[in-house]
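Hey team,

Filing this mostly as a record. A colleague (T.K.) asked me to run one chain through the structure pipeline before their review meeting, and I want the input and output archived in the tracker in case anyone asks later how it was produced. No errors, nothing strange. Just documentation.

Input sequence:
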Amino acid sequence: MTIKIISKKDLSDQLTKLEIKQSGGFGTIKPGLYVLLQFLTEEVAITLPVIKTDPSRETITLLAESVSDKINSLLNHCLTGIQIALEGPFGQPFQIENFGTVLCVANYQSMVALYPVLTALKAAGNHITCHLTGTSVGDSVLENEINNLSDAWINSDENPRRASQILEQTLRIQKYDQVIAIGPAKTIREACTVATATKTPIQAMLYLNEKNQNGQHGIFRVSVCGNTRALCVDGYNFNAYYTSYEEMLKRFGCERAEIETQSKINIPV
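Output structure:
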């Protein structure tokens, strides 16, 4: 589908807000779904979570983090009215309802994907505790916005062992009705392991931000098979079954802890 960008706003040096006009429209796109933007003059496609939709105006809003030189160049020259191709939505939406108490686990690089999920959970009436893992280098994208949507805030330092201990203590000391985990393979492994051990329902999204920012597909839904450690991983052009978290880690690897060029924004999205 060929569409037009009707509004483009740089929220920081590394984050661009795009409002896109749809021809025909998709209606409301649920949290957890994503789209692919294909610039007609380039082969690169950007995978982006949908931040919000406006069916009455037939628009969707996206946040694009630009790190690679190629994508950064495209976004810098993305004038209002330029035509691009949009595919999607793809993925599996998160189940959103009034669960009661929800623990959201993510790392700092996953805030763009976490934001629409958190917004929907809050609107449904949930009491939300947000547990951010890793370290914020300087000020982080959307940190204030996510903090405002959370009823409680847990921040882990850069020590991976310490972050894992805090997560385990949190789930063992307090009962949660639902866990939402978004982030790299390590974050998903830790959250799913503790949730399974404490018999807490969990929904998980593998969010490989470095791949997204470099024109590759990096969003996958992860499902834990029963009470085992077997995992189903489903993405745009890839799906697989893994018998252990270690196999998943070997396939997807670990991303860098943080991207030093992230900047804080406090502009409503």
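Quick notes for T.K.: The helical segments are 69-76, 111-123, 143-149, 160-173, 185-197, 209-213, 245-252. The longest strand covers residues 45-54.
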